[in-house]
Fold this sequence. Notes:
This protein has 171 residues and is low in regular secondary structure. The chain is built from three helices and three strands, in the order αβαβαβ.
Amino acid sequence: MLPFPFAVEHETPVTPTAPVRSSHARLPNALPAALLALLSLLSLGSAAPLAAQSALPHAGPTAPPRTTERSPASRRASLDDGWRIQSSAHVTGTGATIARTDFDTHGWHAATLPATVLAALVADSVYENPYFGMNLRRIPGTTYPIGNNFSHLEMSAGSPFAVPWWYRKTF
């Protein structure tokens, strides 16, 4: 735990010309030393002191070094990565078939969750960044008139997003 509580709420982006507005007083001058101390405690599970730690008041003895080994009872599966997605238009089989551990996901797209189908496809380099230039208009199904509220329009039949998508992970 750091030797002082602090919180900062930024109201404007931090730029060289825009001042940072904070709901609290300026951060204490010891912040860089405290961050170095925290990083030294977290790095490689070691509690080896850094020179910057000597500037901090100590509440007690240094914590024992952490080990990276975990007991079988404390192992946890990561549910955010290792997902595969595919359009239901390209998958044959029922949910029970797709849920089998021996189901072949060759040709499916890698995904890290949480993500929408489009975000996962952009991350998997299927589509270019839709926020750059006219890349959004190159994505199939985006043939609606520019400037119109497309949420009230029918989705084109050729859109890959007109059908459900499967999200799949084996664990």
